[in-house]
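residues and backbone:
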Amino acid sequence: MSRTYIRFTPRQRLEHAAMMTVFTLLVVTGLPQKFFEASLSVWILDLLGGVDRARWIHRACGLAFTGLALLHVGWVLSDVLRGRAGLSMVPTRKDFTDAVVTLRFYLGVSNEQTRFDRFDYRQKFEYWGLILGSVVVILTGLILLWPVTVATYLPGEVIPAAKVAHSNEGLLAFLTIAVWHIYNAHFNPDVFPFDTTIFTGRISEERMHHEHPLELERILHGPGGTHGTPGAPHDLEPGAPPAPGNGGDRRA
């Protein structure tokens, strides 16, 4: 049997499952309100018991989404400050170089292929896009939830502007997940038909070799290895048994 490595902790997997559930409910209750004339929207709203109930569910899920987002930020900051995680999702100059190298490879200009670390530039782009999008939908959602209070302190034009921004950002987030994320999780030839890593927490050694070779070398040889990245062992799951030269092994 092929070796596997622990890539996501139970908390990260639970966090993903909760966010996936809340996001799905927000889409199901939000898009029918935006495209209310479509026959599918009418069918969904009838199934939910009417537009008033759909709005109630949407607002409840919006508050849950806000709570999950705040918990995520708090957990990340706590892990980084306590030295239990690195800044592996922060874009670096290498990410921009990797994007150019990958584009040249796909265009047939060069045979050089990139070697990624724990997260590649596409994953970072998606992550920060969703973080920034979450800030927009949360702020505009809170404005729409308490419009009278907001209009007491801000110009009234803020309310319709928030409605447009909230609606369009929600649609953009849905399209990003439906096209970008679903492709990478399901239709990418490397993982088709389903990437189970975020649910099981484990990834095979073959995929580590192919998708995260720099991280694998760091795990096997430590920060003093030929291609190791100093500081990256903070990304290892706490409590993992030691590995040769690294102080942490993720093999299972």
In short: The first helix runs from residue 10 to 34.
